[in-house]
Known about the structure:
The structure holds three protein chains of three kinds. Chain A is an alpha/beta fold. Chain A has helices at 2-21, 37-52, 68-77, 92-97, 142-148, 163-173, 207-212, 230-244, 252-257, 261-266, 279-282, 323-334, 340-344, 359-366, 374-388, 400-407, 412-415, 421-439, and strands at residues 24-32, 56-64, 84-86, 119-122, 125-130, 134-141, 175-176, 192-198, 270-276, 294-297, 307-310, 313-316, 389-391. In chain A, strand 4 (119-122) and strand 5 (125-130) form a beta hairpin. By secondary structure, chain B is mainly α. Helices cover 71% and strands 0% of the residues of chain B. In chain C, helix 3 (55-62) packs across helix 14 and helix 11 (191-207) packs across helix 15. The two termini of chain C are 31 Å apart. By secondary structure, chain C is an all-alpha fold. At the B-C interface, helix 1, helix 3, helix 4, helix 5 and helix 6 of B face helix 1, helix 4, helix 5, helix 6 and helix 11 of C.
Amino acid sequence: MKKFVFLCAVMMLALAAAAYAGKIEITYMAWYNTTESEAADIQKQLDKFNTSQDKIHVTLIAVSRADYETKLNTMAAAKQLPDTCIMAEPMTIRYAAAGILADLTGMYRPEEEPLKSLAFTYKGKTVGYSCADEVLLLYYNKKMFDDAKIAYPPASADKAWTWKQYVDVAKKLTKDQNGKTPNDAGFDKNNIVTYGTDFNRLSWMWPVLAVSNGGGVMSPDGQKLLIGTPESIEAIQAIADLYLKDHVAPSVGDRGNMPSLDVSLLTGKVAMATSGQWEIGVSLKNSLKDGLVYGVAVLPKMKKAVTYNTGGPTVAFASSKHLAEAKTFVKWYSDESNGWDLITGGIWMPVSAKWYANETVMRKWADNPVHPPFAEYKTAVIDYAMKNAVQVPWYYFPSYDKLDTLINSGITDVWNGDKTAKDYMASIMPQVQKMFDENRPR
Amino acid sequence: MKARRSRSSTLTAYFFLTPALLGLLFLTILPMFGVVLISLTNWSGLENPQFIGLGNFKEIFTEDLYFLRSVVATLYFALGAVVSGIIYSFTVALMLNQRVLARGFWRSVYFIPYVVPSVGTAIVWSWLYESNFGVFNYVLHLLGANKVQWLQSGVTAVPSIVIMVVWGMGSMIVIFLAGLQNVPRAYLEAVEIDGGNAWHKFRHITIPLMTPVIFYNFLMSMISNLQVFVPAYALTRGEPGGRTLFMVFLMYREGFIHNSFGYASALSLIFFVFIAALTVVIFATSRRWMFYEGE
Amino acid sequence: MKRERTNVVVTVIIALVGLAVLFPFFWMVRSSFMSNIEIHRYPPILLPTTWRLENYPYTLSVFPSLRYMLNTLTIALPSVVGVLLTATLAAYAFARLDFPLKRLTFILVIGSMLMPGAVTIIPIFIAWSALGLSNGYTALIVPAFLGGGAVNIFLCRQFLMTIPRDLDEAAIIDGAGHVRVLFQILAPLITPVLISIGLFTFILYWNDLLGPLIYISRNEQNTISQALANFRSGFGTDWKSIMAACTMAIAPPVTLYFVGQKYFIEGIVLSGLKA
């Protein structure tokens, strides 16, 4: 009898060991922006995955955002890539072109597939979907508009301001230390206390205005370079002139020293500013308790109302020894219910169409104290994202990071007024064209 | 009495030298070959390398936007830092060499910045240079001047970094001070007896005797400061407009972030040749203005 | 004709400039005890209205300085050992032994002093990758054991050459081998220069940024310089914490200086005056 019990125990132990050993180990690499403590939030998501099933165990490799590209590249060179990761957008398609990313085409059933606008593609294959939908928006301090008795910026694309309307409003809201606006005599442009607006000059963000003017960085098929067209140049100059001629925006140096968006709006450093949807959850919600009342609007337009959409993709690496499990994890990760807090928290927007189907489901994730009033949010953000968004070219262009660095390599001269946009573009176009032609997806 | 050359002595010597020789081989000689080899490819680190001959070099010298800017930025910075650094260190050393109260204490004060991690220096100074809240602009404001965009304006970006780096050159002060204290008193007194004043002492005794020290420090400081990296990585990333796009930072960025190992290696090779040439030039011209005690 | 009086003018100048040199430290420490709002006050205030000691525990909770410093120690200490060991061995060979090709090897080693290290980072990285060791501390520690730097070899050699050979000879006559002569007889005598080299090497590794950037992937293995650089670049910089983190990062090297002041100064003098 004892022997029998003993044998049973051994068998059970063996089975347990086998079951445990049967757990496939995969790794997921992700970044944290500043501090390691952010990694704890990602770990919570992974814990959810690990406990929700017992076949796969995923371990987090947390890397600082500043280091991220280097880490990926050194791991790639050493052939020690993780199984999955969230990819830095600008280099994604370069990796795809090198054949390092796994093909995720057909991984989803049609009804669960993320939006097409969120697919990173190369040669017809999808290599990743953004983990969230993000669009560029115009944020503004409602109190400042109330005090100046100016109508709020429009919350729907069909009413989008023209550039002139935008600048006019910004001028009325810009104040120097004596309370004068650029429209008043004696306006002191060296001592501006409140800037009417800031149009984000981050390297990949500002081209959205060029797109609005009929230009942009490149055509959506990645075959035609548009950054040197007159329309694009006009847009660049317009942004620079916000600081140089209209005196409504900070210099790019001052902008770099400004605190986070919520503090900038709250303290009246700036009345309007453009940035991504994520600001709602990453920054703006932090100042709600201090009395920040902000609104969200569509971007001003030049010829057509348009915004950029983006979002870091979750990818699986072709070198993974457990590709099937890696894909399972990637699929799980894109399910909104697994990142629900990030969505209701205003950091992410859902990736699949079903959460945009009607107002009822929209309210489920967008109608809460963290988000702006739903009516405003629905038209200014959701409809805007669904109807007026175009992809940042890194969804399909290999080595967008190199192109982006090149285009922006001396653009501070334009922002600071040392060069006109026209001259600057003329000086770099040969190299830009060459780099574009070398890297075009074929 | 010379050491006897014996078999055991030779074996021991080679045994003792093995680590250093291995280092020479694996950290200097072989990697140099590696640099040359990789620079002839378009290796991305992601796929297998392809031989492209002198393609990288052709691009760098004829079409590239970054190379020229980087050379200018790096040279401007290195020359500025080394020359200012030597002037600053020498002046402070001269002063410390006088009868100063609590000299040892002050010597420590001037030296301490040297042990600070350069990242820490960069961070603290970036706040001092901050155009809206920084102390430097506040002082300017008190003096009635306009605020300066220290690290963001094209004109002041490199000088700002130079000032920051010179602040950290505490070791040079100590070296010069020791050198000054090594100037034989007899020579200085001889000048006095001949009716010379402090300036004569300085010009005819101190400076000539210090030239070897100045030379050595000029050379080593040049080599070191040409390889400047931290201010570019931690502060400016090459902004504004490439004026702080220092060469080592460019090599790092193109190689490790943009996956262009071939191109970055080509840069490394050019950089190396340049430094080697500079070293030779400095050595060659040193005969003209260096002075050894024996002469 | 000696002047006993202190030179007042120069003392005053030295003191004023010296205070200016200390100012960045003061500003850093003072900021580390303020709130972010106070830091952003303009005109800036000299001292915090209340000294917020809680900034430090808070900073430690988001920026585990201690772990980063420990990581850095894990690299720096073995490296110091490696440098001291291999540099001394090489220096002894050059100072005390005669062997074929001595001049040539010496010139090669000294020549490598002029070699700019940044030039070879790429092939060295590729080599470590091929060996599978490009992620971790190995690549950062091993070079210390491969000769420890030409400057250090040279310094050691110079110092060794100032010691008369009588002690060596006596020991050899007594039957001691070279290893014994070096480690038992000479090493104690060159301790000052060894301490100096050790201190400088330690500072070098504490400050190194490029190496960790390339070879350390996991954030929990970051060195203090690397972590500081990353901390600074996040969105919406939290200045009080950054200043506190800086203060903590600077404290060890500064303390080390005060403890080993004599050796620092001597070491610098030795290396700088060798010309």
